[in-house]
């Protein structure tokens, strides 16, 4: 299982994130990055003129192969120097400047398991809105609510993101990594409303 994830990342991770819209020179925030399944390919794409902020609160993570510790090892083994690890203690503020980010990756993190109240999710989305450049966007994979076919929660998440000042621009079905398993999933792109 682990080898298939590593193989997918090596063979398809960059291609997937290029389709999402990440480009060389971008500044990306991987919010809830875990062990860096998306941080690593994003860092390769943005190159030395870009940067990836990898934010998470878990040093080790819930699953044995997750967490910032694993991300740091993976980044060092690939000599990626454009990743900035940001460990949070769970506060809802993002320690970045206003309008400094091109793309925020919200993959399997903005749902009831991690943020049980709408108020907490609204605060996260306000912070995401604040740090995104006017031309920036969110790449959003719902994760658990999608896997469990919780249609009510999926509709609530779309509404909450829209109410936070974003507009759904497109939706693609892609191969994604969910809890170290490669599967098909909806990836939504939300842009800042003008």
What keywords describe this structure?
194 residues; alpha/beta; Rossmann fold; seven-stranded mixed β-sheet; 6 helices; 7 strands; 35% helix
Give a quick precis of the structure:
The chain is α/β, with parallel strands linked by helices and 194 residues long. The protein has helices spanning 2-20, 39-46, 68-77, 118-131, 144-147, 151-163; strands spanning 27-31, 51-56, 83-87, 101-107, 132-141, 166-178, 181-192.
Low-confidence stretches: none
What's the overall average pLDDT, rounded?
A: 90
Query: Which class do the helix and strand fractions yield?
Result: alpha/beta
Helix and strand string, N-terminal first? HEHEHEEHEHHEE
Q: Hey, roughly how much beta strand do the residues contain?
A: 25-35%
Please work out how many helical segments DSSP would assign.
Answer: 6
- In CATH's first tier, which class applies? Alpha Beta
The CATH topology comes to: Rossmann fold
